[in-house]
Amino acid sequence: MENSTNNSDQDTKKPVAGGFQRLMQKLGFSGEKIEITTVSAAELEKKMKSSRSLVLLDVREERELNDRLGHIKGILNIPVWHLKNRINELDDKKENDIVIVCRSGARAVKAAKTLKIAGFPNVDILSGGMMEWNRHLASR
Hints:
Layout: H1 7-12, H2 19-26, E1 37-39, H3 41-50, E2 55-58, E3 76-77, H4 83-86, E4 98-101, H5 106-117, E5 123-126, H6 129-139
């Protein structure tokens, strides 16, 4: 099978956008990087004490909430794989500070990107996830 290229792509020297990139462009993102910020467990604890409007979004599977790592009291649980389909559940919290929690941080990054793309401006992730949260609690 012959490998063909689009001359217009070669002329502009821009990479051909993949499916995700095309979707991002359709949603109005021009390819700029999405900034994801983190909070430490100590910072989150302070936020929890000082903010009534803070949303803790745990993106782990429901069965993980009661495993050895447990969960933070008052969380909203929407597993990361369901977030796009359930994002409307967060519509009334769009301007709130949202901290995303998962086991170690990887799924939280994916969820944070999803929320940022959907127009949620105040999104952080818990650095180190529940693993770090439990270390923090144990060190107090």
